[in-house]
């Protein structure tokens, strides 16, 4: 019997979901908590396909699998099934350094407003949100206040205890990738009270500690064997990378491409644009041009199960893993917050 029900909003390919359920079906197989997903929403058609291939009907424990509802912001919150845990890796473009940083002014910012409406109506026991580090410094252009403060206040006004959000680096949780992500938690007031949570300091021990020593990680352990030659970049692309690096340096504009070896302890953040030229993580090879990571390798570096079914389109697979959450971090958080999720 599942111990709690959850919903997966802005689901991408289900990175936040994996640590909250256990699957022992054919093809896919992983061990997370014993939760059951009762509703999913993802707007991108390609991500929906990958999500459905991996999650739909693969587990007998999952009696309820609602067809993926594309855009939950247009739904009446009352129509969403009751749940104990709300998960959402809400869009990061309006909040990321690379984006335009319009925050709530950007229409994608209003996704949070829709999440808050669901929280207010459905009152899940716990809310877990994920975003990029840039959200911490983003200001609301109208009010001049920090967007993160508005988000936290909104959750509090829904009847929640909201500890100070935390940044986690995938490198501290067994993944050799320098990927920092922000996690926001909210615990319904009655459950917080039962667990003696009144102020931020009371929650400190619930945030997980690092599970590994960064220096012990080796990128090579996450790479595939016998990678086809097509992943080795062409002379033209390599020349372009080298020239851009020199140009960038003379303009004081960062590094350009980033290269690593099998023995490196980490690669740079893999983004959704990795498919373009692999600039953020090229693997150096002996007597050959460097190569790009394969889509499977980018999934490995995000902690996805090795039997996770990839999009048939390489471009989509790179985009989907580049947008995903580092799963090991979520596993560590899930174990700590399990205590708040059910009475069962
Ligand atoms: C950062 S990604 C989430 C990745 C996810 N945590 C994972 O690990 O795969 C944000 C996702 O939100 C989706 N999204 C944005 N607005 C949405 C909406 N209104 N309804 C449903 N999904 C939405 C985007 O298509 C994108 O896939």
The CATH architecture of the largest domain can be named as: 3-Layer(aba) Sandwich
The value of Rg in angstroms is: 20 Å
- Strand proportion, as a percent range, falls in 15-25%
Oligomeric assembly: single chain
State the low-pLDDT regions, or none: none
Number of domains: 2
| DSSP helical segment count | 10
Estimate the global geometry from the Cα principal axes. Answer: globular
Per CATH, the superfamily of the largest domain is Vaccinia Virus protein VP39
Give the helix proportion (percent range).
25-40%
Q: Give the number of DSSP strands.
A: 12
Kindly report how far apart the N and C termini lie: 10 Å
Average pLDDT score: 90
Ligand species = S-adenosylmethionine
What kind of sheet is the major sheet?
Answer: 7 strands, mixed
Describe the structure.
The chain has 344 residues and is α/β, with parallel strands linked by helices. Helices cover 28% and strands 16% of the residues. It contains 10 helices and 12 strands. Helix 8 packs parallel to helix 9. The mean pLDDT is 90. S-adenosylmethionine is lined by residues 10, 12-16, 41-44, 47, 71-73, 89, 91-92, 111, 130, 323-325. Residues 10, 12-16, 41-44, 47, 71-73, 89, 91-92, 111, 130, 323-325 line the site of S-adenosylmethionine (SAM).
């Amino acid at each position: 019997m599942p111990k709690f029900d959850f919903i997966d909003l802005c689901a991408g390919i289900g990175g936040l979901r994996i640590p909250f359920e256990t699957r022992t079906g054919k093809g896919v197989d992983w061990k997370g908590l014993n939760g059951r997903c009762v509703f999913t929403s993802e707007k991108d058609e390609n991500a929906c396909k990958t999500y459905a291939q991996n999650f739909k009907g693969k587990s007998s424990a999952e009696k309820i699998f609602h067809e993926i509802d594309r855009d939950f912001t247009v739904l009446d919150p009352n129509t969403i099934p009751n749940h104990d845990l709300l998960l959402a890796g809400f869009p990061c473009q309006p909040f990321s350094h690379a984006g335009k940083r319009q925050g709530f002014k950007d229409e994608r910012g209003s996704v949070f407003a829709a999440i808050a409406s669901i929280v207010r109506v459905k009152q899940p026991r716990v809310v877990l949100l994920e975003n990029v580090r840039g959200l911490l410094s983003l200001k609301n252009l109208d009010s001049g206040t920090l967007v993160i403060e508005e988000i936290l206040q909104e959750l509090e006004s829904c009847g929640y205890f909201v500890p100070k959000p935390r940044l986690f680096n995938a490198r501290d949780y067994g993944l050799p990738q320098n990927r920092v992500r922000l996690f926001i938690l909210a615990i319904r007031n009655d459950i917080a009270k039962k667990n003696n949570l009144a102020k931020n300091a009371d929650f400190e021990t619930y945030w997980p500690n690092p599970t590994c020593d960064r220096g012990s990680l080796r990128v090579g352990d996450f790479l595939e064997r016998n990678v086809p030659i097509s992943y080795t970049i062409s002379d033209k692309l390599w020349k372009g990378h080298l020239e851009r690096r020199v140009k960038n340096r003379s303009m004081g504009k960062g590094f350009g491409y980033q290269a690593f070896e099998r023995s490196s302890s980490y690669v740079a953040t893999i983004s959704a644009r990795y498919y373009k030229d692999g600039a953020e993580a090229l693997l150096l090879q002996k007597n050959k041009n460097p190569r790009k990571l394969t889509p499977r390798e980018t999934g490995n570096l995000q902690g996805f199960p090795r039997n996770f079914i990839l999009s048939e389109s390489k471009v989509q697979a790179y985009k989907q893993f580049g947008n995903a959450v580092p799963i090991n971090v979520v596993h560590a958080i899930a174990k700590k917050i399990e205590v708040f999720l059910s009475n069962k």
